[in-house]
UniProtKB/TrEMBL annotation:
This is asparagine synthase (glutamine-hydrolyzing). Gene3D superfamilies: Glutamine Phosphoribosylpyrophosphate, subunit 1, domain 1, HUPs. Transmembrane segments: none annotated. Belongs to the asparagine synthetase family. It comes from Alteromonas oceani. InterPro entries: Asn_synth_AEB, Asn_synthase, ASN_synthetase/amidase, AsnB_N, GATase_2_dom, Ntn_hydrolases_N, Rossmann-like_a/b/a_fold. Pfam families: Asn_synthase (PF00733), GATase_7 (PF13537). SUPFAM superfamilies: Adenine nucleotide alpha hydrolases-like, N-terminal nucleophile aminohydrolases (Ntn hydrolases). It comes from the Bacteria. Residues 2-213 form the Glutamine amidotransferase type-2 domain. The gene is asnB. Its EC number is 6.3.5.4.
């Protein structure tokens, strides 16, 4: 795992080795083992290396093709590189390293952008063609590895993280208003936007070509739900078990110590079981827990660790949060508010003490319908189909307004949410049920000037556009596509990448393998969500490996005691940011309403934990990246 960055020099003559050094230093944590730069009249490239394969200096980057026409900087892992290498060697090509980087370089020299069809892995890469004077960049299919870029008036630059682009003199820190609204709706800024007007994300499954000052962006892969399999459930289950075992084994190739995250849930437990069955030595496993029992899964993780005789390590988050929160959040270059970033950081830190590569169960919920929200959506969509349209459109919106008056009462709040969802079409209903801020609260909070700047923009556009692109045969297939192309890359994978890279740890996810995702897209929805059981076929695949109390217990995930934290553990630090006079939040929200929500939460009259946490994450980001400059202005 590594970090990459670079810039064009067509209309940016001032780019030099010093600037490359600054960009590389900004992402040093992504690759502390080695660093390298390349500079010529057309481009500057830099690379930070976390050595995983071929630990010798021969694997350092930038790397050159034998004829030195092509220069590559690469972040990620290609899991089928040995197969590709064998095929290329059979054609007469020779290799001087044992890296996947050299395989990519050779394949690109032969096939150009078409090489992406053969690469199976997680990656962000840039290849400079000295003959064509062009830069080819690509991001992996599902978006495990980040790739940011800026293109302004013929100037082009890219990097693994935004912080590596900020040293560029032509980058401003102007904030996108619609991205702020998106953040409070989703707790992340969705692709291809970033919080900054001048910086974008290369979307997953896309490649870019920069030549002659012009930038072209093309999609090379998408999840296809249109080819539903007619194979029996039993046969599909057996295929899934074999496929996930194969993908897990592929990810166990490394020249450094390797282990696994173990939460005690279905996905990570299944992955650990498959690792143990294919390993000659005990698997190293790492788990995180909390003092509050309802958020602590370590007993389940320990049960799996005991079953497979792993070398198990645990860390309990006691009063570590407030002392570490500012440091943890500093690794996000734009607002990000998934609360599980905290345990993800700590489990990555724990794992890094033992290993350099950790295998995780990420993706099971999005690929096989494992979240509780899919159960809620199934109930809502079933009711939506039974309630006459004229009632949904003419009666339920008014009823929702009446119920909002009692929204401090949990049951009334849920009833209002249900009425809101049922009054809409399925796509909008899915958005409303999962938005991280209630529309009524947004309208209470939003500053009139900010509202005017937003005009008629609404964050639901992200969800609705993705849902409209989906080609699945039913509603569940369409919302799974929506989450795979929005929530997964924008939320889950950003969290895992930043928190693992903060600790110079590589994380691999077998369930997010290209083959698993493509296979799962052909599995009928009825086998994923069956008779109210989430992730049915994946549980069936893991049934020979795990006991029922792991397979069928209520999902907890990396949940944290957020409401309690804001009243106790992190109250002081949250108050110092959220209620600070003339802070960043005050540029978008009414200070009096912010204070009102804070006091309601402290008194227990209303649980505003999610919204206040989002405010805290926004303000921490704002003070780090914007605060001093805003005050000077």
């Amino acid at each position: 795992m590594c970090g990459i960055a670079g810039f064009s020099r067509y209309q940016f003559e001032s780019g030099d080795e010093s600037l490359l050094a600054d960009m590389g230093q900004a992402i040093y944590h992504r690759g502390p083992d080695a660093g390298g730069t390349y500079l010529d009249t057309g481009v500057g490239l830099c690379h930070r290396r976390l050595s995983i394969l071929d630990l010798s200096a021969a694997g350092n980057q930038p790397m050159f093709s034998p004829d030195r026409r092509y220069v590559i900087v690469f972040n990620g892992e290609i899991y089928n590189f040995l197969d590709i290498r064998a095929s290329l060697e059979a054609q007469g090509h020779q290799f001087t390293t044992h890296t996947d980087t050299e395989v990519i370089l050779t394949l690109y020299a032969l096939e150009g952008p078409a090489c992406l069809d053969k690469l199976n892995g997680m990656f962000a890469l840039a290849i400079w063609d000295t003959a064509e004077q062009s830069v080819f960049l690509a991001r992996d299919r599902i978006g495990k590895k980040p790739l940011y870029y800026t293109h302004q008036h013929g100037k082009f630059a890219f990097a693994s993280e935004i912080k590596a682009l900020l040293p560029l003199p032509f980058i401003s820190k102007s904030i996108r208003d619609d991205a702020v609204y998106d953040f409070f709706a989703y707790q992340y800024v969705p692709d291809p936007k970033t919080i900054f007007t001048d910086i974008q994300k290369c979307p997953p499954g896309h490649y870019m070509l920069f030549k002659g000052g012009e930038l072209t962006i093309k999609r090379y892969w998408d999840v296809d739900f249109s080819r539903t399999s007619n194979t029996s459930e039993e046969a599909l289950t057996n295929q899934l078990r074999e496929l996930t075992a194969h993908c897990t084994k592929q990810r166990m190739i490394a020249d450094v110590p390797l282990g696994a995250f173990l939460s005690g849930g279905v996905d990570s437990s299944g992955v650990v079981a498959m690792m143990a069955n294919q390993s000659e030595s005990p698997v190293k496993t790492c788990s995180i827990g909390f003092d509050e029992k309802r958020f602590n899964e370590t007993e389940f993780a320990k049960a799996v660790a005991d079953q497979y005789h792993t070398e198990h390590h645990e860390f309990i988050v006691h009063d570590n949060v407030s002392d570490n929160l500012e440091h943890i959040v500093s690794f996000f270059d734009e607002p990000f508010a998934d609360p599980s970033l905290v345990p993800t950081y700590f489990v990555s830190k724990l794992a890094r003490q033992e290993v350099t590569v950790a295998i995780a169960g990420d993706g099971g919920d999005e690929v096989f319908a494992g979240y509780e929200k899919y159960s809620v959506d199934a109930v809502e969509n079933n009711l939506r189909n039974k309630v006459p349209g004229w009632i949904r459109k003419n009666v339920l919106p008014g009823l929702a307004n009446l119920l909002s008056a009692g929204s401090s009462i949990t049951v009334l709040r849920k009833a209002k949410s249900l009425c809101d969802s049922l009054s809409c079409d399925p796509a909008m209903g899915f958005y409303l049920s999962n938005a991280q801020i209630d529309q009524r609260h947004w309208q209470q909070l939003v500053d009139p000037d900010f509202a005017n700047r937003l005009g008629d923009y609404h964050p639901s556009k992200i969800t609705l556009d993705a849902y409209a692109r989906a080609n699945g045969p039913d509603h569940l297939a369409k919302i799974l596509y929506t989450d795979l192309t929005t929530f997964l890359p924008g939320g889950i994978l950003v969290k895992v990448d930043r928190m693992s890279m903060a600790n110079s740890l590589e994380v691999r996810a077998p369930i997010l393998d290209r083959e698993v995702i493509e296979f799962a897209a052909t599995v009928p929805s009825a086998f994923k969500f069956k008779d109210g059981e989430k992730k049915h076929i994946l549980k069936e695949a893991f049934k020979p490996l795990l006991p029922d109390d792991i397979l069928y217990r209520k999902k907890m995930g990396f949940s944290v005691p957020l409401d309690s934290w804001l009243r106790n553990e992190i109250k002081a630090i949250a108050e110092s940011y959220i209620l600070k006079d003339n802070n960043g939040l005050c540029r978008y929200f009414k200070p009096a309403v912010i204070r009102q929500f804070w006091q309601q939460h402290q008194s227990g009259s209303y649980q505003h934990g999610t919204l206040l946490w989002s405010m805290l994450m926004f303000e921490m980001w704002y003070q780090r990246y914007i605060g001093s400059e805003a005050e000077a202005a």
